[in-house]
Amino acid sequence: MFIHPSWNINSAKRIHKNNIQAINIVFMDTFFAYNRSTTSIFY
Q1: Which domain of life is it from (predicted)?
Q2: Is the pTM for the entire model greater than 0.70?
Q3: How many domains does the chain have?
Q4: E strand or H helix at 27, and its extent?
């Protein structure tokens, strides 16, 4: 999702997959900290 413009296409595609997972983890960690009771809905 956050692709640095100097990266080439192949590494950008590969890192894009990893970024989606990483951002989901960060988002869920943040959301879990705010609202523990509803986080389980998203797992």
Answers
A1: Bacteria
A2: no
A3: 1
A4: helix 9-34
Q: Which residue has the tokens 């879990």?
A: 32
The stretch 2-11 carries a mean pLDDT of 59
Burial class (CB in 10 A: 0-12, 13-18, 19+), 15: middle
pLDDT in tens, 16-34: 677 777 777 777 777 777 7
37 residue type, one letter: S
Query: What is the domain range of residue 24?
Result: 9-42
Q: Does 3 fall in a domain?
A: no
d(CA 21, CA 15): 10
